[in-house]
Amino acid sequence: MLLPLMRTGIGFDFHRLVAGRPLVLGGVHIAWERGLLGHIAWERGLLGHSDADALVHAVCDALLGAAGLGDIGRHFPDTDPRFKGIASVRLLESCRRLIAERGFSVVNVDAVILAEAPRTAPYRSEMEANIARALAIATERVNVKATTMEGCGVIGRGEGIGAMATVLLAPADDGPCA
Ligand code: MG
C-alpha cells in the first residue's frame, strides 16, 4: 500500500525585547508595558526588521522546512527593504503560497511561545485565528500554547521572547504530490 507523503517541519525563533517597539505575537498587538516619557509614548516589544513576530516566524520556518524550501531568511531576507516593518502574517501568507506551489496543504500547526511575560493566554485564540486565516485553514488545525522559563536564562530574565512550532503537511488534493 502506498502511504501518503506526509511531511513534518520544525521552526524556532527568538527576538530581543527592547523599549520603543510594539509587541506583536501571532499577529496580535499586545500592549503590556507602555507609558509616557515626557510627551513621547513608548512600549516594549521585539526588535527586528519586520514586526519581529517570533511566533509567526517559527511557524513560517516550520512550513518552509516541511516543504524542503529552506528557511524564512532565504525567502524574506532582513536586508530587503520590502520587508521592513512588515506584518509577519503577510510573510506567512507568502509561505502558504510557496507550500501550495509545491503541492502541499497544511494538516495542522502546533506552536509554543517561550516568554516570562506577558501572559499570553488571553490572546491565544486570536493568535490561532490569525495564523489559520493566513494559511487558509480551519482554526481547529492551529494550536498555540506558552510556557515560562521559570526565571532562567535569557528568556527567563525577560531579555527576549522565543517560539517553537511544528507543522504537518499532506499532499494537496490537486497538487503534484498527490
Ligand atoms: Mg524572526
Summary, kept brief:
It is built from 5 helices and 8 strands; from the N terminus they run E-E-E-E-E-H-H-H-E-H-E-H-E. The chain has 178 residues and is of the alpha+beta class.
Radius of gyration: 17 Å
What share of residues are in beta strands? 25-35%
Give the N-to-C terminal Cα separation.
15 Å
Give the overall shape.
globular
Low-pLDDT stretches: none
CATH C-level: Alpha Beta
CATH homology superfamily: 2-C-methyl-D-erythritol 2,4-cyclodiphosphate synthase
Structure in words:
The mean pLDDT is 94. This protein has five helices and eight strands, in the order βββββαααβαβαβ. It has 178 residues and is α+β, with helices and mostly antiparallel strands. Helices cover 26% and strands 32% of the residues. The longest helix has 14 residues, at 88-101. The chain has a single domain (8-171), classed as 2-C-methyl-D-erythritol 2,4-cyclodiphosphate synthase (60s Ribosomal Protein L30, Chain: A), CATH 3.30.1330. It has helices spanning 54-66, 72-75, 88-101, 124-135, 153-156; strands at residues 7-19, 24-25, 28-29, 34-37, 40-46, 104-114, 142-147, 160-171. The strands form two sheets. Strands 4-5-1-8-6-7 form a six-stranded mixed sheet. Strands 2-3 form a two-stranded antiparallel sheet. Residues 13, 15, 48, 54, 57 line the site of magnesium ion.
Keywords:
alpha+beta; 60s Ribosomal Protein L30, Chain: A; 8 strands; 26% helix; binds magnesium ion
